[in-house]
Give the backbone structure.
Amino acid sequence: MTLTQLNRARQIIKNKPALIWSTQNYDNLSAESITEAVLNYGDWEEFKILKRIFGLKQLQTIFNQLAGQKRINLRPPTVNYFRHYFQHYAP
């Protein structure tokens, strides 16, 4: 992942700060925290923007890392939906 990609993804949060309400330090957000926020609380347009920025495979990798942790912050319906989504579109 490039710094340009990460900065573009951070712009999603800057444009809609309610996605990550616990901080205003948007310039230090990781790809994982941005992805988690967009998948949990974003709308479909924000997901499509994130997918264009990171690419489907890279987004799938980030999702799998998040979903594979012992303690995850993704909501169960979100995990279920995106597991099916990535299995179908990024096998």
The CA atoms of residues 40 and 74 lie 6 Å apart.
